Records
---
Amino acid sequence: MSLEASIQSLISRLETVTSRLEDVEKKVAAGASHSSLPASSSNTPASSGSGGSDHPSVRAYDDLVSQYVHQYVELSAKIAPEVKQQAELFQKAIESQRKMIILATQAKKPSDADLQAIIKPTSDLMQEITSLRDKQRTSKFFNNLSTVSEGVGALGWVVVSPTPGPHVGDMRGGSEFYSNRILKDFKDKDQTQVDWVKAYNGFLKELQTYIKNFHTTGLTWNANGGDAKTLAQSGASSAPAKAPTPAPSATTTTSTSAPKPDITNVFSAISKGTDVTSSLKKVTDDMKTKNRKPEERSSVVTADSSKKPAVEKSEGPAKAVSKPPKLALEGNKWVVEYQKNNREIKIAETETRQTVYIYKCEGSTIQIVGKINTIIVDDCKKTAVVFENVISGIEIVNSTALEVQVIGKVPSIAVDKTSGLQLFLSKETLDSEIITSKSSDVNVLIPGKKEGDDPIELPLPYQFKTLIKNDTLVTNTVEHV
């Protein structure tokens, strides 16, 4: 093709684009004669007729869902039935949220009580997603289920003000704790799993960008719109999305026989913004484990079973359902669950291919003899874990007031969402890697310089100071004199 022909072709294409832009400009001008489009939360008024599925914020949301969520749902069906079921629930939650975004373009901001009623369908689906993960703790795809259940809280941005974007970022951080495990396990092995992580994480990341563009300080409501509660009940916001969505599997069923926890109060608390922490009790220095007297701390050494610790009585709301304690070998996994005040748990017959999963234990001591592959401590309280050798590493998640002692060697220690951890290391473990995330009051105790010396206690920092120097971030730990 000659240079002249190329230029002529380019000019023709530019004229076509210009013509399309002029058509769009005419449509926008026609709409502006009735009302102007909202640019930020409750800043620019708009008539109730200017909203709906054609609103820019709704179209942008549809594009986001089409780009990431549809791929995530399709890939979930290829991984496992439980992953597929959870993905279908997530898709329903997305559709429910889309209706709320459409409603916001048509209605004024409702009262807090009405807002909780409007958000309830989405919050119920979020609870189902989390419950599905909790029921599948023995699944081989527990990391997939946890990735979604930890990240689904991001959909609560619609009731967060004035910083909904950072709220999504916080939820994404918790989700990536599990998705990083998937990438570690399946990189260069299973591309479906890798693409699955990219699709889900991509949605959460771009959701934050979407919020920044359309709902910077909170969900944008139509200041000149109608009553939100009335429009929601009439189904005015139920216009279908333009992009086709995969139909849910006919075999997927949602159980309604058992009562579900009501998490609408969580959204009510989130909507308070910075006031959400106003009712929390301040933790003073004398309440921290490291500042208590030695006799008030729990011991890593197995306590005398004849001394039964007193059971704390709670006069608050009804206690959570307590399941019977469990200690069993399921395949290659030792399962230790719901143990209460049991100081004599010992796992002696171990193999290098086995893992140990410790869940919902309180006031107990677990001793693991020999060499195993992995240890996971999840949602435990006032519990001690003593083990010899671990090939892969130990992971401590969602726990409080733990003591973990390494007698032999472990290469990696991961701590996430844990408060009050005493970590006793042996001389062979001093070269271990310790990774912490969203954790506080984590103390590492290493052997003294000489035989018979007291252990040296080293607190892990969890407060940081960041400065901008030469267009880069420089972060250092905060030191208290």
---
Amino acid sequence: LTTPVPPITDFFAMAEAPHLQDQPAEVLKQDDMWQRQQQKTFTAWVNSHLRKRSLKVEDVQKDLSDGKLLLHLMEIVGDASLPKPARGNMRIHKIQNVGHAFQFIA
């Protein structure tokens, strides 16, 4: 006898918030609202700094993922000079950009 496998989306939900796995729908809704509010607040904070260079993000997760705007943000917040972002759009260029930002943080 085998147990049914839950849909893959359930695995992702459990991985993101395992503590909410058995919570009522109301708690899950509140957590979702809290996450959206946090993301909106962080996006506004990022934009308040990037505005100094006439830059803007719409979706923090997507727009910072290539490392280009992340490097700009690190320079502004850290008041430092970092390497220029790699020009290409290949995965290796994105990894280089994010790597430079991480090196600065460390």
---
Amino acid sequence: MNDNPENQNSSVRRSKRRQVPNSKYVDVPMSNTPSSNSKPTPPTSSTHLHTTHVPNDQTQVTNPSDPTANELCKTCNKDFDPLTSYPSLFCNSCNLWYHYTCANLSESEYETAATDQEAEWFCHNCSGIPDYIPATPLTSTWGGISGQTIMSDLSSAYSEIVGWRPNLFKLPKGAAGQAFVSEVNRLINAWTIKSDLEQVAILAVNTIGALVLQKPGKRSTPKEHTTALTRRLELWKNGQFLDLLSEARAIQKQIRSSTQSSESTSKGFARLMLAGKVNKAMRLLCTSHSAPLEVTPGLIRDLEKKHPPDAPLNRTHLVSSLPAPGFERVIFGSIDGLMIKKAAKSTGGGCGPSGMSSELWSRMLSSKAFTQEGDNLSSSLARLTRRLCTELVDPSPLSPLLSCRLIGLSKDQGTGVRPIGIGEVLRRIIGRAVTQHLRQDI
């Protein structure tokens, strides 16, 4: 028996990178992640060089002293020859190996997990995350940009707009308003049909409002709004997101601070909540004259103290397959555009990080000014809802839909902070449509 604790630990826990004894280092090219409809294939072009251990004779290891020899990937049942397959990771729970592509990891996610030898890695079965089909790779072009540039520019814009003050004008009638609704519909449909814009579609939906509907001035007219919307939509379609961001940023800098104090905003919010007027209370925080506490490092620290620590992920808390137990897939097939419109009309409250209010969504879906466009959008949202209810989808592209706007309000004469979270209106519309459809079973 070996009484050395260090040796005991090393015999139990294996390295997360695939290791082969008696080896030399060879730089093996690693290709882009394969499509979701195919298993990993040997890399053919080099996009990143990754140092991998391979045997000196470049043959399969048969050393019986190596506990990882001759093992196969748990997902695809193929070997780990670094010259013919993708690198792999070792699950610290089930003690099995997985190609990083079979584990639905991107190349950057693999690098992060593989280089941190102190952290543990768990496969989907052990982490509690059900298996899902990764989103379609982003290979499309958008105006003058393509691929990851689309993601990068939209992400940069979104990360900034979530902290802006509410300043969107009412969606105008006519061709400009119809074009805006049609563009939102195109993006929703791109995610629903799993197009090559699936990875950025929801992100774009949650970014477009703040970039193209910014009110030019405090007293700008509806005609000026129509002109601005027409011009900005052209920039949007050309992929000039950063140009739109620069213009909208300049407008935000011109918005004067509210004359209302943060204390009066907090009192107004509390008064409405005590009266049971939750929607009005939330809308109060999303108006241009509201005055929540200014976001400072001190406020962020105070809010973090109030946030409970992360709880361990328990697989029993998650749905491992869809539809959920007790619900047949067919019952979600009857969710249609009319249900989405009905849900939107009854959805109120404040706006989430995107700044797109319940009034804007209701107008796009139900206004007579956008009859055909609204019908198309409601049908696309119904298909999106049905897919969410019946498929295990890649969660990454849905992050903007699930995000919340965190607002700090003063309380007790400024001696404390009251955290208020407001989710996206679109998420509430989808949730309301589903719960209304299943109300007899819930």
